[in-house]
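// run 5 | inverse folding | seed 20
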């Protein structure tokens, strides 16, 4: 663990979030922005010992704390029986963290580690804020909405679903992503060895992969799909082994994980994706039209409202997983790639929803809250 006894800066910002990449990546984006803007400040990250951050935070040059936090189980409800003991341990760990760091500001980016940290900080009178990524606010945001100082929305549609306190300010900032750089397209074409005149289809299911999407894409390719286009396919680390046999560059390129993803967004004319809000924020910022298949088992089905927001705006096609077949996917992709004017219209709608300035807006609020 990065030593938490390092030199203490005049001001400490504690950012708690994780469990999944959708909550961890915003925390890291905000942390990086704070460090660039205020190099003399101390930035500390907090997450869950069982979340994805346990593997990622040790690779980042930030002091961090992994807490004994677990999710509340909706289906396997009997696992919640250990929560009374777990809650006691968790509260003690959070209090020790707050005592040691004495943060001037605590920010939560969602996930089961963020809620307890923000809750205890607010109880101590420490300025607090939540960055909510989704159109349907998560459990932590809904529970803390009356208690925190500010809520920073990834999409404005979430505002109507929040019951806030008298002194809680809700601000439409957008989601914290790295701003797109159109100049990246040239180097990205070279990285993938792509023909700049042939359409590029990006397929992604997130860092871990989307098995249902991947298997349908595989069947579509086996049936002759993908002719006349180039496919950049991020199959995910968990499922890559099953699909790497389709790697036949430049026509089809299969990766376990794309880093940076910005290279894929820079070259894509169309994307097939799940409905995680951070991915959607990046697609919008880059102006990439999309076919979106929300994960039906996501907590509270939160990906479906995300997808409907973009579909209603004309930036995406909503394809429910119940309708996902190789034939149907091929029809949708083919219809869009054969209609450049419609793709252009969708791209403009995506850009209109994009918030590439979100990090700057969040930095402004951090400056206000930190006094």
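// decoded
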């Amino acid at each position: 663990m990065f030593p938490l006894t390092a030199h203490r800066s005049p001001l400490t910002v504690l950012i708690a979030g994780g469990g999944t990449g959708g909550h961890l990546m915003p925390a890291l984006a905000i942390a990086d922005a704070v460090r660039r803007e205020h190099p003399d400040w101390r930035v500390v990250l907090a997450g869950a010992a069982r979340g994805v951050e346990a593997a990622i935070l040790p690779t980042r040059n930030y002091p961090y704390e992994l807490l004994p936090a677990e999710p509340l189980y909706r289906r396997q409800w009997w696992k919640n029986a250990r929560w009374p003991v777990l809650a006691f341990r968790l509260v003690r760990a959070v209090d020790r963290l707050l005592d040691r760091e004495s943060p001037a500001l605590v920010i939560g980016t969602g996930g089961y580690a963020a809620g307890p940290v923000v809750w205890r900080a607010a109880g101590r009178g420490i300025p607090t804020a939540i960055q909510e990524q989704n159109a349907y606010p998560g459990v932590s945001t809904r529970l803390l909405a009356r208690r925190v100082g500010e809520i920073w929305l990834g999409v404005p549609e979430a505002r109507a679903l929040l019951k806030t306190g008298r002194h809680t300010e809700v601000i439409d900032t957008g989601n914290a992503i790295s701003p797109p750089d159109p100049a990246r397209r040239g180097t990205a074409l070279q990285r993938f060895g792509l023909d700049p005149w042939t359409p590029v289809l990006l397929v992604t299911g997130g860092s871990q992969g989307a098995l249902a999407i991947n298997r349908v894409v595989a069947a579509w390719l086996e049936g002759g799909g993908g002719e006349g286009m180039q496919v950049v396919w991020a199959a995910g680390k968990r499922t890559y082994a099953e699909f790497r046999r389709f790697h036949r560059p430049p026509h089809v390129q299969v990766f376990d994980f794309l880093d940076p993803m910005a290279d894929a967004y820079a070259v894509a004319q169309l994307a097939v994706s799940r409905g995680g809000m951070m991915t959607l924020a990046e697609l919008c910022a880059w102006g990439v039209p999309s076919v979106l298949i929300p994960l039906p088992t996501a907590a509270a089905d939160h990906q479906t409202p995300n997808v409907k927001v973009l579909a209603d705006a004309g930036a995406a096609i909503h394809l429910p997983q119940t309708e996902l077949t190789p034939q149907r996917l091929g029809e949708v992709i083919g219809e869009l790639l054969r209609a450049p004017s419609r793709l252009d219209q969708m791209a403009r709608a995506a850009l209109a929803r994009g918030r590439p300035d979100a990090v700057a807006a969040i930095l402004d609020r951090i400056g206000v809250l930190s006094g």
